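Morning run. Coffee first, then this:
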Amino acid sequence: MTEPSAQQASLAGWQRPLLPGELLEAPGGKRSARDWVVDVVLFGVAVIVGVLGVTSITADRSDAGVVIDVVVGTAVCATLWVRRRYPVEVAVVAVVASAFFAMAGGAALVAVFNAAIRASRRALVALVALALVSGAIFPLLYPSSGRWWEQFLFGLLLIAVALGWGLFTRARREVIRSLRERAERLESEQRLRVQQAQEAERRRIAREMHDVLAHRLSLLSVHAGALEFRPDATPEEVAEAAGVIRATAQTALQELRDVIGVLRDETEERAVQPPQPTLAQLPTLIEESREAGMNIRLDLDASIDDQLPQGVGRTAYRVVQEGLTNARKHAPAAAVEVSISKDDGPSLVVAVVSRSPVGVPAAGAQVEGSGSGLVGLAERVSLAGGELKHGPNEDGDFVLRARLPWTP
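And here it is:
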């Protein structure tokens, strides 16, 4: 893993030093501050346990033998600093040395603990067998420390504790890794869903614009053809046809501006569709929702006249449609208020408010979903030059509000 993941990047600065380096980077990577503290503590524990072991065998060793034991045991303890990179090798050296040198006993316990975390299962089984052999040899060389079976059982107990603790740590780290991988996978899938929703909305808008522009251009062709094949037309008829051509061309240009920048897959098969609905079809949409059992109140500003561009009207229609769909899916008992007005922006403001009954959670908070509908709607509003906001307000009602630029 060469780059930090989203989960790693989201960690606060004070959290990173508290985690093992292997959970932050690839195995064998740079030690974290926590790793340095753990290394120092475990090295100190290994030395202290080794010293206690040496003091218990002085009756069975000469002074020179004790010095050799301390030197060899200290060297074995030093290998613990590379135990993360070579867990099996360090464990084998420490366990074999602990059979003959008391100073290496503490290092053997730490090495077994480390191997339980990092070694393969086959290597770990072989290492446990080697530790049992080592535990059986040590009491034979130092009988003054106690009876053989007592020393063997005591050593077996220490190995079992180190092994169990290491396996528990290993299981916990594997769970953390699996949860992190799952979170990263879900984040990746969510990003993919958002991108797919945005692309689908762009293609849908492109298809709508294609249908509308085709309608406008067909009108231009009809009137231009009439002028071409009616050379005897009166000046009034020519002026009327020219006026229709000018108005239709101006409207087509406005629609074309809306589609600039919209990506469209030219290889996709497209079915011919009728012109898409605008605000003129809004009463029909409201009535259909009411017939489905929804409680809807419509507040439409009467000052919004027929000069509203069809592109803005289509986007406003889609905002209301998505708001009613969400209310019907997530809060079927909610009373819905739809308001369409214009402000001093000048902008067209479309708002859909789902007012939940008393005792019912806010709309949109009951059922989990991918949110692709709102993602696509946000893309549509953005391409229209507007902005979309959604979420619960201070009263707990779910509000979907769009502001669309419009110059009457």
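The two ends are 56 Å apart (CA to CA). Good start to the day.
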